[in-house]
Amino acid sequence: MTAEETFHPGAWTAWLVAAALPALSTRNPLYLSLILVAVGITYIALGQRNPTARSWSAFVRVGAFFWLLTIPFSMLTSHHGTIVLFSLPRSWPIIGGAITLEALLYGLTGGLALVALLLVFAAFNVAVDQARLLRMTPGFIYQAGVVTSIAVAFVPQMVATWQAIREAQQVRGHKFRGIRDLLPLILPLLVTALERAMQLAESMEARGFGGQVLQATPRQRLAHQLALLDGLGLVGLGLAVNGFLPHFKVIGSIQLVCGLALMLWSFWDVGRRSKRTRYRRWPWGRMDRVVLVLGLLGAAAWGVILLMQPEWLHYYPYEPYSPWPTFNPIIGAVLLLLALPGVLLRPTVEESEVSAAT
Amino acid sequence: MITLSHVTYTYPDQARPALADFSVTIPQGEFVLVVGPSGAGKSTFLRSLNGLAPHFYGGRWAGSIEVGGRNPVDLAPRGMADLVGFVFQDPEAQFVVDTVEDELAFAMENFALPPATMRKRIEEVLDQMGIAELRQRRISTLSGGEKQRVAIAAVLALQPEILVLDEPTSQLDPQAAEDVLLALRQLNEDQGLTIVLSEHRLERVAQYADHMLYMPALGAAPVLDEPRKIMAQLPFVPPLVDLGRTLGWDPLPLTIKEGRPFARRLGPQLAARISGKTGEHSVAAGLPGGTGPETGGGALPAPVLSTRDLHYAYHGHRAVRGISLDIRQGEFVTLMGRNGSGKSTLLKAFVGLLKPDDGQVMVAGLDTRRVDVDAIIQHAGYVPQHPASLLFSETLAAELAFTRKSHGMPPDPEGDIALLARLGLAELRDRDPRDLSGGEQQRAALAAILVAEPQIIFLDEPTRGLDYMQKRSLVELLLGMKREGRTVVMATHDVELAAACADRVVLLGEGQIVVDGPAREVMSDSQVFASQINKLFRDPHYLVVTDVLDALGQA
Do B141 and B215 belong together in one domain? Predict the structure, then answer.
């Protein structure tokens, strides 16, 4: 796969927001089903371009599992609602009582929201190379980005090591009977992980990592440390005020915003002084721009609905609301926007196939 | 130009220095091979060239060092990175990000090079190392040889003048190692890069080096000289040099090509000996070293290990495809083949860690699909690739006691001591196994398995990182186990090791058996897996030095 065939991570991040927002903010089964349809179309289109897209089935299975779990859980524990399907003896703890249609619907829609969210991430996962996404981290949190990408590469290695250790000890007759028997497994893992980490650190140092930092004057350093500390304090205070003193929400929010701003400034200040460059920003292809615009449009539309007409999204099967969901065509149209990238994707593939054939 | 003068360096919490009054000068543009036994300070010397010692480890440093006009002690590794490129031993552990192209850019990003320059340099190093087709790949999907070439490319991107490599080929199969070394030679010749490289397997590298730096022991004065002169004084050398030294060949041959004229002169003498020895027997029957049961005549003993049409796949990757094999009591079988040809998988299937997807494995009369690993390990022992994955106890003695206990055997400290003594570990029995050197750890892991007295022993790459001396003691140990009538199955890349011990070689490719036969036949019929002595004489009678000496009546 060449670089031109993969997508710009930014474009699909916009799509992710546009798709995840509805899945998070409504439980209306009709809307959720529409999201599923849109995501499905997108996934199929992406899967045809990227044959390595095999994580989907795992996501679907996990989603189905949770869904099947939430339905009986809600039915057996709720007991509210007016439309009684059947009753269990009251003497049974927790699950005893009326089993209602409302509880069934509640579990069904709750699970559906979860499944929709999972599959949104699954489709995103197929569209975007995680390694690239990590490398999009803005300059001031570059270190955090590197740390995360190291962790991403490190974890599978450690899983493989864990496997090797387990096999080695198993063949030596080690049996797992209790906590004490963890020692022969954990100790070699720790030692190996430590050795690996040391070697990696050596390798990074030998390639000039963290090298070209301009020295800060003591005053500058003090300033950004103070800013970071004050910022943290303000954020904590703001959260506390908002949580415990609901009447002073405005003050709490101001504290939050100021705190975040201070922290951001201090990060930016550190980043500014570390001199580094980025290798090849990925080009924005035609399709990337389309996906970005659609994503932004969808997210914006949903934001407007969420702020102006939140009751459109409302769904709650219990009294005094109706268990039967409403449907607003405007929302339906907004959700179908999510499927458009998938619909538009297919001609691009055929085009490239044609050009490859000629 | 590299100059160290009177350098003494001690790692933190160590009593003895790793480098003591160490002085050496390496001119620009040289290809220098650093040799010496484990623990003589090779790695420390290499790490001083870019300041990793003392900066990364700490410790006490005295003396002066200058590398390409800079002082690594003052500048620290990050200040040396654009002058000295450093490649590490383990191809797995030195990568920071997970795709090839990003990995190549990593060092340049750290040096804040403009994106246009990075673009150009990445194209350059991709071509230099011949890895252009790998650019978009995930590093985890590369083979060992590819990984090492990517690691070299990643340091070349900063256009260093000096390339330092710490045993870069020790984990590679012979062909992959050859590819890496050829690429290095080319960098040295075409671009004048100074190359300083350490390696235990001299037979691979000696021919490429301009000079060798011999570090005889911890604290002893190093010797920098032409390879031929160094080779003449090393205690342990590759088989070709060993033969040349024993027979007094002058000039001492370092390559097969240099050795051939001597071998030709020896030819008639050897031919006479052999025909005299074997008499009316056919050549095949006259092959020496046929100590395996297959030449014993009469009824063959029943196989202790047999597989029928064995298949195994990891996540859709078919690692083993249709292997049928019979191994008899007392045989010494070596599995060879490229990295990823299915050797390790096969060993794991033998010991029951992996259950066959299809087909059957019978070990000591047990079907691995039907019984637990616990039942199999009463008869078979398995030593994994990394001894560190086995060792966890506080002392070596406790390590052995643990194996006994897990096997339901009574404690037997005297038996343990005897075993450790046989492995040359007697003095280390109260030491923490994790503090031992690589070679000692390897033997400690072996001890932890052998204490259960398995009749069949499976070894996965037992010579990683061992020097010649340690390897020789391992060979003796393995041959001793064979004499006791145990069956040994070993996966290895090490051609000379296989030549020294194996009765039978099974060559694997893509999870299938390519060749299976007596070691002499297989190893003399192969380009890649032939031993040095065999390449020299091109005759299945001669695999190792003693074959030739025996034939000459000199042993």
Answer: yes
Measure Cα distances from B234 to B208, B216, B252 in Å: 18, 8, 13
3-state secondary structure of B289: coil
Closest CA to A161 of B435, B492, B93: B93
Angle, helices B115-128/B100-110, rounded to nearest 10 degrees: 130
**Is B498 within the bounds of a domain?**
no
Is there a single domain that holds both residue B253 and residue B167? no
Residues 277 through 336 of chain A touching chain B, CB cutoff 8 Å: 277-281
Instruction: Give first-to-last CA distance, chain B, whole Å.
Output: 46
**B266 with B151, same domain?**
no
Place of tokens 């998938």: A342
pLDDT of A331 above 50:
yes
Q: Domain boundary residue among B213, B233, B253? A: B233
B150/B277 same-domain check: no
Pairing mode, if any, of strands B487-491 and B456-460?
parallel
Closest CA to B474 of B503, B512, B445, B504: B445
User: Do B149 and B265 reside in the same domain of the chain?
Assistant: no
Which residues, 6 or more positions from B51, have their beta carbon under 8 angstroms from its beta carbon?
B72, B73, B75, B76, B77, B79, B80
pLDDT tens digits, B75-131: 888 889 899 999 988 877 788 877 898 889 988 888 888 888 999 999 999 998 889
- Give the span between the Cα atoms of B337 and B356, in whole angstroms: 21
Q: Are residues B176 and B136 in the same domain?
A: yes
Is there a domain that residue B465 lies in? no
Contacts of A287 (CB under 8 A, 6+ apart): A7, A11, A341, A344, A345, A348
Nearest to A131 among B97, B112, B351 (CB): B97
Residue of A157, A167, A172, A180 to mutate, interface with B, max B Cβ within 10 Å: A172
Q: Which of B109, B120, B158 to mutate to test the interface with A (most CBs of A within 10 A)?
A: B109
Domain holding B50, by residue range, is 2-233
**Contact yes or no for B374 and A175 at CB 8 A:** yes
pTM above 0.80, yes or no: no
**How would residue A346 be classed by pLDDT, with cut points 50, 70 and 90?**
low
CA distance A284 to A3: 11
Q: What is the CATH number of the domain that holds B173?
A: 3.40.50.300
Give the separation between CA B350 and CA B343, rounded to whole angstroms. Answer: 11
How near does any CA of chain A get to the CA of B101, in Å?
Answer: 9
Do B111 and B185 lie in a common domain? yes
* Integer Cα distance of B30 and B189 in angstroms: 9
Within-domain flag for B420? no
Which DSSP helix (H) or strand (E) runs through B490?
strand B487-491
Is residue A348 a contact partner of residue A47, using CB atoms and an 8 Å limit? no
Most confident by average pLDDT, A43-47, B336-340, B456-460: B456-460
Q: B198, B213, B233: which is the final residue of a domain?
A: B233
User: CB-based contacts of B4: which residues, under 8 Å, 6+ apart?
Assistant: B22, B23, B24, B25, B45, B48, B63, B64, B65
Burial class (CB in 10 A: 0-12, 13-18, 19+), B2: buried
**Nearest-CB residue to B78 (from A152, A175, A205):** A205
pLDDT digits (tens, 9 = 90+) for B324-373: 999 999 999 999 988 888 899 999 999 999 999 999 999 999 999 999 88
Closest CA to B234 of A274, A243, B437, B244: B244
pLDDT tens by residue, A210-264: 655 555 677 777 887 788 888 888 888 888 887 777 777 778 878 888 888 888 8
Number of structural domains chain B divides into: 2
Q: Is the model's pLDDT at B67 over the cut of 50?
A: yes
Tell me which residue in A175, A191, A277 faces B406 most closely, judged by beta carbons.
A175
Same domain, B223 and B244: no
Any domain includes B39: yes
- Residue B280: the pLDDT is 39
